[in-house]
Amino acid sequence: QMSEEVPAGGGNALEAPAAPPAAEGYLQKRSRILHRWERVYCRLLDGGRLAYASEPPNGESTASDWAVKRAKCLQLSACTIRPLAGRERAFEILTGDGRQTVALSAESDEDLDMWMSAFLVARAERRGGSGANSNTGCSVQ
Questions:
Q1: Closest by CA position to 73, among listed 111, 122, 121, 136
Q2: pLDDT (tens digit, 9 = 90+) per residue, 30-60?
Q3: CATH no. for residue 81?
Q4: Which DSSP string do the residues of 30-48 spell out, in sequence order?
Q5: What gap in Å lies between CA 136 and CA 74, rounded to an integer?
Q6: Taking every annotated instance into account, which residue ranges of this chain make up the domain PH (predicted)?
Q7: Neighbouring residues of 35: CB distance < 8 A, sequence distance ≥ 6
Q8: Mind giving me the DSSP string for 60-128?
Q9: Does the residue 5 lie in any domain?
């Protein structure tokens, strides 16, 4: 439906040892109802999933740590990422089915570049393609 919690048990991609995340850190997220910008901690997980929670998990961060924090998770493999007007360094992620849009904003130009690069790499790895030109169903505009 909207967002799903990261499963605490052993899912298909959760059993293998986790590689270091391609990207992690704070982003600003616009709330759905009041449209206020709130700071959230985000991490790009294995399998092209973006997890975010109000605060980072402690210590070694595994998928089960994120579940404890009740993290939300977006699958990036069939999404569109595009600039968001009206706020500097802001972008929105639209799910492939069009049912969910998440508005995020980086805190610096360097952070924005890091996240955009990580999204492109995650998308290419998930689909087995190479870079931004692979035909994946997910695009960064």
A1: 122
A2: 998 898 999 999 988 878 888 888 887 765 5
A3: 2.30.29.30
A4: E-TTT--EEEEEEEEETTT
A5: 16
A6: 20-124
A7: none
A8: S--HHHHHHTT-EEEE-TT-EEEE-TTSTTEEEEE-TTSS-EEEEE-SSHHHHHHHHHHHHHHHHHHHT
A9: no
The number of domains in the chain is 1
Q: How many residues does the chain have?
A: 141
Where do we find the tokens 């999933």?
A: 49
Local confidence band at 107 (pLDDT 50, 70, 90 cut-offs): very high
Distance between CA 63 and CA 67 in Å, rounded? 6
Look up residue 3 and give its two tokens.
């967002």
- Whole-angstrom Cα distance, residue 108 to residue 46? 25
Count of CB atoms situated within 10 Å of the CB of 3? 14
87 within some domain: yes
Q: How many CB atoms lie within 10 A of CB 130?
A: 10
CB atoms within 10 A of CB 15: 9
Q: Is residue 45 part of a domain?
A: yes
Nearest to residue 47, comparing CAs of 77, 69, 72? 77
Structure tokens at 131: 């870079």
